[in-house]
Specification:
mainly alpha; 0% strand; globular
Length: 143
């Protein structure tokens, strides 16, 4: 009612995350895409990155990895522009997961290796451990 588009974008994002957690995926995508539209109109790149990440996570969960990769590539551009190393690590991990869902293990490995390099550069042992675990998984899948 206040007409504050920034607040509306944030509320819709949070609503979408809640709907995702409740496994109401189509409703979540609708809320998140509406939030994304508002945040793009407002030039709010920070919130736009949250939207794209949340949308891509849903696409991975509902086994639509091609659509996840499309959103993750958009997100990658924004994270590189913002020089956000932590989000870049997450971005490459999510790309690796999406490529694994497509059984494209070479692209998955490449994404995980980029995440690994960034996590080593960032000094994040926890992120490095997660990436190494994902690499182990795809190597096992390939035999």
């Amino acid at each position: 009612k206040s007409g504050d588009k920034s607040a509306l974008g944030l509320i819709l994002n949070n609503k979408g995350v809640t709907q995702k957690d409740l496994k109401q995926y189509e409703e979540a995508l609708a809320s998140l895409n509406e939030s994304l539209k508002i945040n793009r109109e407002n030039g709010n790149k920070r919130q736009e990155r949250f939207n794209l990440n949340n949308i891509s996570v849903i696409y991975v969960e509902i086994n639509r990895p091609g659509e996840a990769i499309e959103k993750l590539n958009q997100l990658l551009v924004l994270n590189e522009e913002m020089h956000d190393t932590v989000e870049l690590i997450n971005n490459f991990q999510n790309l690796g997961t999406a490529y694994t869902g497509m059984k494209d293990y070479l692209k998955a490995e490449s994404s995980y290796i980029k995440a690994l390099e960034l996590s080593e550069k960032n000094g994040s042992a926890e992120m490095k451990q997660k990436v190494l675990s994902e690499l182990s998984t795809i190597y096992r899948l390939q035999g």
